[in-house]
Amino acid sequence: MKLIRVESATPLDTPVSPSTDLAPITYPDIAIRAGVSGAVQIKFVVEEDGTTDSVYVWRGIGAGCDEVAHSAIENATFLPGRTADGTAVRSSATAHFRFSLRCSE
Fold first, then answer.
1. Domain enclosing residue 87, as ranges
2. Mean pLDDT, range 77-83, rounded to an integer
3. Where are the beta strands (DSSP E) in the chain?
4. Would you give the distance in Å from CA 14 to the centre of its chain?
5. Residue 39 near residue 98 (C-beta atoms within 8 A)
6. How far apart are the C-alpha atoms of 6 and 12, rounded to whole Å?
7. How many Å apart are CA 3 and CA 22, to the nearest integer?
8. Are strands 91-99 and 17-18 parallel, antiparallel or unpaired?
9. Is residue 25 part of a domain?
10. What is the total count of domains within the chain?
11. CA 52 to chain centre
């Protein structure tokens, strides 16, 4: 499982980005046993201080994958989006996670 990308929904001069690597995320055992793979999209708000708010699963695949992706974003800190003058602003974003049972994906 890996984070593919984070997209800012708010037009900014400097988009939202993770401040550090996300904590390690474990592929849920139930998803492995059931052969579940696919993409999870998490929508959220990044506050001016880099904390997250209003985190929710936009598109999920179940089997515990949605919950671990949600938790990863909820517990992460981000570099907030900034305007041209450098002011940090509250902004919406989407994180895309890929859960794959193949090593190469």
1. 2-99
2. 89
3. 2-8, 17-18, 38-46, 52-59, 78-79, 81-82, 88-89, 91-99
4. 18
5. yes
6. 14
7. 8
8. unpaired
9. yes
10. 1
11. 10
CB 61 within 8 A of CB 27: no
The pair of three-digit structure tokens given for residue 21, joined into one six-digit string:
């690597």
**Which tokens hold the place of 91?**
């902004």
- The amino acid at 95: A
Query: What pLDDT, on a 0 to 100 scale, did the predictor assign at position 103?
Result: 64
For residue range 34-77, list pLDDT tens digits in order: 999 999 999 999 999 999 999 999 999 999 999 999 999 999 99
d(CA 88, CA 58): 25
CATH number of the domain to which 66 belongs: 3.30.2420.10
Mean pLDDT over 4-27 rounds to 74
pLDDT 10s digits, 17-34? 888 777 778 899 999 999
Q: How far is Cα 17 from Cα 3, in angstroms, rounded to an integer? A: 12
Question: Quick one: DSSP state of residue 90?
Answer: -
Q: In which band, very low, low, confident or very high, does the pLDDT at 9 lie, cut at 50, 70 and 90?
A: low
